[in-house]
């Protein structure tokens, strides 16, 4: 089984809808991250969490919120989706003991119509 | 804030040849880690190689090696004996939160 899982893998939604992307990990890592990937822009950090009680904004947090329900779970919400949030979304984990190497989920392809 | 720049949006290499992907970064820190990740068409992100800044020796993983120039803040990836399976997007990363825009590598048979 995959160490970092994301659900759903693909999602099409309409403008204005609320949507939640979920991430779970079995690696036992404290650190979790949400990124979005757009062509020509690479991966940009949306939010990150270093433990259950620690939530931090990344460089592009506007229009997004997160919830760290447990060490193993980190969810990303789009409160009111808009078309320019169409992107590939990645969840990742890391552990300081692994020298900040990121372990990625398989990604969620989100399309907002 | 630390930034990572990959100046080559696309690169192409003939199978069995060598190709070098460029990456520069900006930081005021003295100790840090740098990474290269590969994203094949499956879109799964895979670690290729890592370099610790305080280590003088360039990292090597089989056909993949880096040229780390700390003073110049440069971290290039060399792929030797390129294979068709090397075709992918390659991302340079500084520590755990800063990624470059990526370089798309095409391998020609």
How does this model look, in words?
Chain A is an all-beta fold and 113 residues long. Chain A has no helices and eleven strands. In chain A, strands 2, 4, 5, 6, 9, 10 and 11 form a seven-stranded mixed β-sheet that branches. In chain A, strands 1-3-8-7 form a four-stranded antiparallel β-sheet, with no helix packed on it. The radius of gyration of chain A is 13 Å and the shape is globular. Chain A starts with a strand and ends with a strand. In chain A, 35% of the residues are buried. The radius of gyration of chain B is 13 Å and the shape is globular. The interface between A and B is medium-sized, with 22 and 22 residues.
Provide tags for this entry.
heterodimer; A: 113 residues; mainly beta; 7-stranded mixed sheet; 4-stranded antiparallel sheet; 58% strand; B: mainly beta; 12 strands; 0% helix; 52% strand
Largest sheet of chain B: 6 strands, mixed
What sort of overall outline of chain B do the alpha carbons produce when their principal axes are compared? globular
Number of helices of chain A: 0
Q: What structural class should be given to the helix and strand makeup of chain A?
A: mainly beta
The level of helicity of chain A is: under 10%
Q: Please tally the β strands of chain A and state the result.
A: 11
Q: Give the uncertain stretches of chain B in residue-range form.
A: none
Order of helices and strands of chain A: EEEEEEEEEEE
């Amino acid at each position: 089984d995959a160490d970092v899982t994301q659900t759903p893998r693909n999602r099409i939604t309409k403008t204005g809808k609320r949507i939640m992307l979920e991430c779970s990990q079995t690696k036992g890592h404290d650190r979790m991250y949400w990124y979005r990937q757009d062509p020509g822009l690479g991966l940009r950090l949306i939010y990150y969490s270093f433990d259950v009680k620690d939530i931090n904004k990344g460089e592009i947090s506007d229009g997004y919120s997160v919830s760290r329900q447990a060490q193993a779970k980190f969810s990303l919400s789009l409160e009111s989706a808009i078309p320019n949030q169409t992107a590939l979304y990645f969840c990742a984990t890391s552990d300081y003991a692994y020298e900040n190497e990121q372990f990625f989920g398989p990604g969620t392809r989100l399309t907002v119509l | 804030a630390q930034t990572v720049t990959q100046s080559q949006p696309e690169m192409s290499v003939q199978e069995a040849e060598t190709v070098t992907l460029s990456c520069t970064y900006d930081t005021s820190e003295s100790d840090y880690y740098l990474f290269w990740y590969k994203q094949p068409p499956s879109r799964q992100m895979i670690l290729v190689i890592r370099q610790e800044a305080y280590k003088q020796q360039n990292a090597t993983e089989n056909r993949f090696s880096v040229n780390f120039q700390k003073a110049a803040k440069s971290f290039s990836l060399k792929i030797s004996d390129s294979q068709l399976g090397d075709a992918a997007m390659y991302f340079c990363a500084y520590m755990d939160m800063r990624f470059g825009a990526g370089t798309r590598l095409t391998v020609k048979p």
